[in-house]
Structures are given as C-alpha cells and as structure tokens.
C-alpha cells in the first residue's frame, strides 16, 4: 500500500529531494513550506499528483493543527513524518547574538519539530506503525562556533527524538534523528557562499539514505541517531541507556 509521508520544508533542498524519492517509490507526500515561492520549481522536480504542497508556518501551533487536521481528513493516516524544515542564524559570536535572535532560531528549528510531533503523535499512535524522522545536524552533535542558536536548537532536536522514542517504546511509533553534515542547498549557500556549498554532499545523497532507513535497509534504533557527512555514514548511535 502506498505510504502517506509528511515532510516539512519540502519546497527545496533536502525536503524536496526526499519528496522526489518517496513519490518515485509510489508513496504520497504532503510537503509543507511557509511560502509558495519555490513551488513552481518544486513541481517541475516532482511533477506528480502524489506530491501535494501545503502552505503554512509550522512555528504556529494553530497552523500546525490546521495542516495536520487537513492531512488526516484527506489521507486518513500518517505513516512517516519528517521534520526537516529549519533555518540557520547568520554567523555571530555568542556575545553578539541578541536574545530575540537566539529565541527565533529555537522557534524555527525546535518549536516547529516539537509542534509537529505533538500534534502528529495522537494520529500515528492509533496506527499499528509509524516513523518520525527529525532532521538535526552535525551542529546538533557538536557545537559550531558562531552558530550558537542553531547548534543549541539542533541539540534540542536530539532530545525531542529521544523523548518521543522513550515515551512510545511500547507502541509501534519509532522516532530517530538524522544529523547531516553540510549539504549543497540554499541554506548552506546563504551561510557560507556558493563555492563552499558546491563542495558539500548533495541533498539527494542524504535523502537516499533516509529513504533506506525508512525502508528498514539501514537500521537505526528508535531514539538513536545517524550522522551523514562528506557523502558517508560516519556514525550510527543507539539511544542512550535509560
Ligand atoms: N544545508 C546544510 O548544510 C544542512 C546541514 C545540516 C543540517 N541541515 C538541516 O537540514 C534541514 C533542511 O535544510 P536545507 O538545507 O534543505 O534547507 P533550505 O534549503 O533552506 O530549505 C528549507 C525548507 O524549509 C521551509 N521552511 C523553513 N522554515 C519553515 C517554517 N517555519 N514553516 C514551514 N516551512 C519552513 C522552506 O520553505 P519556506 O522558506 O518557503 O518556508 C524550505 O522549503 C534543516 O533542518 C537544516 O537545519 C542542513
């Protein structure tokens, strides 16, 4: 049976690469982004009626509830939720980061994943199985200087996944974290420029491994995380002991 996949941040970058791979496998993807700016290009990459783009800012709880209720109404279930949307702070030393900016990056990278988990879990728990993949970063396993807000929020994503996994250890809901290193996407181009971005692994490579994880070909225990860096899997970590 085709799976129902929800991917946040699916209009470009890693989210779009994931959408393409799942749709190519015959699955249906509901992709979310704040704006419609990249939709025409995205629909050229995935020209399928099985790729449904929805607009909404998932840092808003009201919007998350509305989006998920709409998906539930249209599809009846969620087999896989991929919390991929995120954004990166401009580079700045800790003492130069305003509290407003610090909080904004928590909102963009952690609140959004939390809200999606919070409101998708009751739907997924009614099913025999479901998978949540939260996208963190290498920066969520070891801090990157001048990216304090982003790094701290991405460490938080790891904690979110571990909590969801532990709370659901007796259910069919699994939750893992994917920690990519640099990828050649708009996020990287904005932060470090085009030349640097072109040297990074492709989002298609990372998406391919994530699809293999979702398909059970690469085992990652619920609550665990995988690091994908320089076009290689550089580590697969089990959840910490209780
Ligand atoms: N690129 C890297 O080098 C790198 C490395 C490690 C980890 N990551 C992580 O990988 C994930 C994907 O990154 P990427 O490089 O593919 O990013 P990207 O190219 O900047 O794409 C981000 C996507 O998220 C959407 N988005 C952002 N904020 C949103 C919000 N509040 N609500 C709904 N949609 C939102 C964007 O669309 P709109 O702008 O229209 O909302 C876009 O579709 C992120 O979590 C990122 O932190 C990236």
Number of domains: 1
| Count of extended strands | 8
Percentage beta strand: 15-25%
Helix content: 40-55%
Spell the H/E element sequence: EHEHEHEHEHEHHHEE
Low-confidence stretches: none
pLDDT averaged residue by residue: 97
Main CATH class: Alpha Beta
Strand order across the biggest sheet? 3-2-1-4-5-6-7-8
Any idea of the CATH topology? Rossmann fold
CATH architecture: 3-Layer(aba) Sandwich
Query: Could you tell me the radius of gyration in angstroms?
Result: 17 Å
Query: Which hetero ligands occur in this complex?
Result: NADP nicotinamide-adenine-dinucleotide phosphate
Helix-strand category: alpha/beta
Cα end-to-end separation:
35 Å
The 3D shape can be described as: globular
The CATH superfamily is: NAD(P)-binding Rossmann-like Domain
User: Main sheet, how many strands, which sense, barrel?
Assistant: 8 strands, mixed
Q: State the helix count.
A: 8
Could you characterize the architecture of this molecule?
It is a single chain. This protein is α/β, with parallel strands linked by helices. It has one domain: NAD(P)-binding Rossmann-like Domain (Rossmann fold). It is 43% helix and 19% strand. It contains 8 helices and 8 strands, in the order E-H-E-H-E-H-E-H-E-H-E-H-H-H-E-E. Strands 3-2-1-4-5-6-7-8 form an 8-stranded mixed sheet, with helices on both faces. It is globular, with a radius of gyration of 17 Å. It starts with a strand and ends in a 5-residue tail after the last strand. The relative contact order is 0.13. NADP nicotinamide-adenine-dinucleotide phosphate binds next to helix 1, strand 2, helix 4 and helix 6.
